[in-house]
Write a structure and sequence with these properties.
Elements: H1 2-10, E1 14-21, H2 32-42, E2 44-47, E3 49-51, E4 60-61, E5 65-72, E6 75-82, E7 87-92, H3 98-101, E8 117-119, H4 120-139, E9 146-154, E10 160-162, E11 180-188, H5 189-209, H6 218-229
Parallel strand pairs: 8-10
Antiparallel strand pairs: 1-7, 1-9, 2-3, 4-5, 5-6, 6-7, 9-11
Length: about 230
């Protein structure tokens, strides 16, 4: 199943996330059970669906890693946690699967063509979950002084930004001219623990600027983010 789900994810737009310690230590996590428990404990649930999705019954083990996957409607993802403390996560752009799999939306989502859009709030919220997850790993002492966080968006060329919330709209078309949007940061443990949500907001604005949206209102997005975080 693993090869099939990776191929499916990469057949359309997708995210790739990698969070790791700066210093490689082969068995930083002493057992595979510890790897699985760490992902489960640090999983973030702000919107009903967790980040990442963890089903203890279907976690698979390798020589020095555990992995999980799911294929449910527009939620298609695969993750792996290594004993070295490296977490890798591959997941589909949900917008690209609404047309045939809008399980958690309305009929209007079925009108959105695959590979055509990136939803503003979903992007902000996903990045908020990613940085919150990294902060929770840091709370568990997985990192020493700093960590590397890499987030990549693939299959972006030709997409435009949209809102799916009623009565919210963009007054121009903001379209991405490049296919890949990779960003990699070295972040101190102090900053990820104290400023994870600011870092996520920074990253979201960075993405939107690559869609030529240069007049992003940070204060408005921050209020959207605060509403999300109140559900913690």
């Amino acid at each position: 199943m693993t090869g099939d789900i990776i191929s499916k994810i990469k057949s359309r737009g997708y995210w790739f996330v990698n969070v790791r310690p700066l210093k490689f230590e082969k068995e930083k996590l002493k057992s595979l059970a510890e790897c699985a428990e760490l992902v489960k404990t640090c999983s973030v649930r702000l919107r009903g669906w967790p980040y990442p999705y963890v089903n203890a019954n279907v976690i698979k083990s390798g020589v020095d890693w555990v992995q999980g996957e799911v294929d449910s409607g527009s939620y298609i993802e695969y993750w792996r946690m290594h004993q070295s403390g490296q977490f890798a996560h591959l997941f589909a752009c949900r917008e690209d699967w609404w047309k045939e799999n809008s399980l958690f939306g309305g009929e209007h989502l079925k009108k959105i063509e695959p590979m055509s859009t990136l939803e503003v709030l979903m992007t902000l919220f996903t990045l908020t979950e990613i940085y919150e997850f990294a902060a929770r790993l840091a709370e568990k002492k997985l990192f020493e002084e700093a960590l590397n966080v890499t987030v990549e968006l693939h299959g972006m060329k030709g997409r435009k930004l949209i809102f799916i919330e009623p009565f919210r709209t963009l007054f121009d078309e903001y379209v991405c001219a490049v296919n890949d949007l990779p960003r990699s940061l070295i972040i101190s443990v102090e900053d990820v623990l104290g400023k994870a949500h600011e870092l996520a907001l920074d990253h979201a604005i960075w993405v939107f600027e690559r869609f030529n949206w240069r007049s992003v209102r940070r204060d408005i997005l921050q209020k959207d983010q605060e509403k999300l975080l109140q559900k913690r």
